[in-house]
Amino acid sequence: MKILLIGYGKMGQTIAALAAQQGHEIAGIVDRHATQLNITDFTPATVDVAIEFTHPDSALANITACLRQGIPVVCGSTGWLHHFDEAQALTQELGGSLFYASNYSVGVNLFFHFNEYMAAKMHQFGGYDVAVREIHHTHKIDQPSGTALTTAEGIIRHFPGKTSWRNAPAEATTELAVISERSGEVVGTHIVRYTSAVDTLELKHEAHSREGFALGALLAAKWLPGRVGVFGMKELLDL
To answer: For 30-56, what is each residue's pLDDT tens digit?
Structure first.
């Protein structure tokens, strides 16, 4: 593939290194700190797909530019989902291709899958309360993490006792506590804990490096071109 990288932070650099190992070409890098290139400098004739990992404030503008250029875009930025409906509408209007995931790790997406199954089962048998905890490095801007939000939404869909989430200890039984911690260089840890008077059950995912996220993003980038619409990891992994 010929890949346009949008954002050249830690994730962008990891994706670039793995792409080279897999025989792909980085056709361009758009990054305000690293290059003077713009998304409008590229077209479907020069790149096959764009991979976007930037900042919550710039994600929508980057996605919009890719869609208007006719470039399929794989987005991994988090913290911008209040604009997701706009991105979805523009994708449909232009007949474009957008792939979004809050986390591209195959393991994390299996975690999401099992989280929803577990929520339904735990509610079915009763007697448990549930909370989410996420731990990331001190450089992470948004909180809770996009992965924690996806986890919380999955619980709320399948555990009827919880109707909303709160980024703090719950103040009502209907609230799902999502506790965020920022510590050192932690890549990303997410824990769902069910507690009752007699026992505790946990579902946990702990990332050891950013490579898992980068490999998933490249997998999505291979899969997306030629498809029209908005997609995510459930479609990619057939979950």
So the answer is: 998 877 899 999 999 999 999 999 999
Q: What is the DSSP letter of 74?
A: E
* Cα angle value 9/236/4 (rounded, 5°): 35
SS (H, E, C) 94-146: HCCEEEECCCCCHHHHHHHHHHHHHHHHHHHHCCCEEEEEEEECCCCCCCCCH
Structure tokens, 160: 């009827």
Q: Active-site residue numbers?
A: 136, 140
- 144-172 pLDDT, tens digit per residue, is 998 899 999 999 999 999 999 999 999 99
Third-level CATH fold of 106-208: Dihydrodipicolinate Reductase; domain 2 (3.30.360)
Domain with CATH 3.40.50.720 in the chain: 2-104+211-237
Find the angle CA(27)-CA(66)-CA(85) to the nearest 5 degrees: 145
Pick 2-104+211-237's CATH classification: 3.30.930.10, 2.70.40.10, 3.40.120.10, 3.40.50.720: 3.40.50.720
0.70 exceeded by the pTM?
A: yes
